[in-house]
Design a protein that fits this description.
alpha+beta, Beta Polymerase, domain 2, Hydrophobic Seed Protein, binds adenosine-5'-triphosphate, binds magnesium ion
Amino acid sequence: MKRRLSVPKDLRDFAAVFSKSGYSCYFVGGAVRDGLLGRPVSDWDAATDARPEQVKGLFRSVIPTGIQHGTVTVRWRGASIETTTFRVDGEYRDGRRPESVAFTGDLLDDLSRRDFTINGMAVDPATGEVVDPAGGMDDLAAGVVRAIGDPIARFTEDGLRPMRAVRFAARFGFSIDEATFAAIPATLERFRLVSAERVRDEFSKILTCDRPADGLRMLYDSGLLAEFLPELTACAGVGQGGPHRYDVLGHSFAACLAAPPDLELRLAALLHDVGKPARRAEAEDGSLSFHGHELESARLAAAALRRLKYPNAVVDAVSRLVKHHMFDYRDSWTDAAVRRFVARVGLEWVKPLALLRLADSGGMGAGPADPRSVMPLIERVESLVAKDQAFGLKDLAIGGDELAAAGWPRGPAMGRALAELLEAVLDDPELNEKGRLLDIAARIKGKYGVGD
Ligand code: ATP
Ligand code: MG
């Protein structure tokens, strides 16, 4: 591995503004780590001995984004550079945020407060020299996430760090150093104090990395997962029989891995079977069934995601995907069956559901699922859409206004009549004309207690 890291010219020029005024400026943390790994660097975070007010004096555009922690954002040649004054953290009394921060003139003090050796390096932009007091380069080369200093003390300061350890390990395919890993179960009490929002954000990053199953396994083995998703860890040891090689937990992890790296799909794949433990029934011949588990799973998933403070849009999308995941597409489906399916799940959910279905079958342990099992459904739906066929009430050639004009009072009966008209149109799209639908409506009036 390289022991030096060259810094792009614009950022060297940025740092030169500091040195011209007698301050030092390094790039730190994730940029050094990712740069040394040869990965693209997304943010170059700067650290300096200049105080925030002094940084303000050096540049035209400085935004006080985290001034209480010594962080400002400098606009520089079209980029935004987070610039933080060297600091040491005060006590972390609540396990969330330091009670106070103190500025220091010493880069080494600043690096020593950082969480992991691979995150505790700085680069001098002028020379490309890497400052590495904790042995981060060796750990990068060995593929190890290791806390700086005593892991129990570091995890007791900030209870989110164990999840960060898992995230970096999952993202880079690293292992977690033994003592660092052992400190996770030992400090779970601190983890419980972390806000749901911080846990959520780390969890989302773990789920959307290339190999989320490794991270999930580490979350499970360390005891973290049981703390924030007990409904999922309750799936451990729940056997399934049939084509399944894994228990429900193992299957959930494998399905998550098989899903595309989209947050909602990964969450849906992970949680699609959480209702199985409650719905498991064993017949006399020993065969297993999980009737109605998709509804129970959708309910449990929504409750868990709400607890983790996911936005409503995510909660709704995931619970909808989970609720409808049990369809079994066959090429023998008639067009009417395809239209009924679309009417039930909603047009925009067809593709995500197909992807979830593939992830579900791919997660059974018999190798990746064959996309040909479900992708033709998407093509068939597209061709029906191209023919302008109706899938929902809004696509019907008549609505409440037309029925009202034909003598129907507004109310629940009208709603049921429209649903019946839609059923007829799903069966036979030719019926979707104003005159034909009004004829049918006239014929069914009596059934709904509507007089002529
Ligand atoms: P990413 O690529 O995900 O942004 P990153 O390493 O830049 O990774 P950030 O969360 O942006 O991670 O944090 C920037 C740096 O700040 C880290 O590299 C680490 O040195 C330090 N840091 C961040 N969060 C913590 C924490 N909770 N405890 C200790 N140090 C932290
Ligand atoms: Mg970062």
